[in-house]
Amino acid sequence: MKSRQFKLGPMDNFSYLLWDEKTRDAAVIDPAWQPAKLEEFIKAENLLLKCVLLTHAHPDHVNGVAYFTEKDKELPVYLHEADRFMLEYRPPVLKPLADGEVLEAGALKITVLHTPGHTPGSVCFQAGGGVYTGDTLFVGECGRVDLPGSSPEALYDSFVKLSALPDGSSVYPGHSYNGDKSTFGVQKEYNLYLKYARAGRREEFLKAVV
Ligand SMILES: [Fe+2]
Predict the structure, then answer these.
(1) H or E element: which one contains 6?
(2) C-alpha 1 – ligand 1 centre gap (Å)
């Protein structure tokens, strides 16, 4: 599997394309702001877009979904049900995500990790040795938990879950804050929130996130 990171829009958001090199089956994660740039790459690489994956429903991560689903009304869009209430635009084919589920999009296999906290339906996608963490985990940081539907307690549990991922897994965040990518090995050492979660230091985590 190959992947490409795209920094798009005024908030340093990342969209990602994942694809299988042989079949050209592709998935887009969090298409937003400048979807035409993603489409340009899809066309140039002869990719076959099979689905849209959403880490959560905040507008800065989903405002490019309609660009794709208006052109292909059968294109499935995956979002955890707990974030549906935030979605302003309803794609024609909206599918739920469950924790631990393995999505098959053509030849691509993507594992879903439900990681609530930033939003109730936040997820991370695990594929090809990388974890696409949305606004749950950033390089050296964690997502905001002062927004409607946020929960510091849920984020702690999600960070405990993430702290069990292999050191060699790449971290591909939803924004370019402090850096564009990292690994879990590095984040376990330098990300205060992941360190607290890994050590079971819940009270300190909860004080630090607010
Ligand atoms: Fe967000």
Answers:
(1) strand 2-8
(2) 26
Tell me the domains of the chain and their CATH numbers. 2-209 (3.60.15.10)
> What spacing in Å lies between the alpha carbon of 23 and ligand 1's midpoint?
32
Q: Which two tokens stand for residue 126?
A: 């695990």
Q: Which residues of the chain fall short of a pLDDT of 70?
A: none
104's tokens: 């098959």
Q: Tokens in use for 136?
A: 């749950």
**Could you tell me the distance, in angstroms and rounded to a whole number, from the CA of residue 58 to the centre of ligand 1?**
5
In the prediction, which pLDDT does 210 show? Answer: 86
CA distance 121 to 145: 13
CA distance 141 to 147: 16
Q: Are the beta carbons of 77 and 94 closer than 8 angstroms?
A: yes
Whole-structure pTM value: 0.98
Residue 48 alpha carbon to ligand 1 centre in Å:
27
Query: How many percent of the chain have pLDDT more than 70?
Result: 100
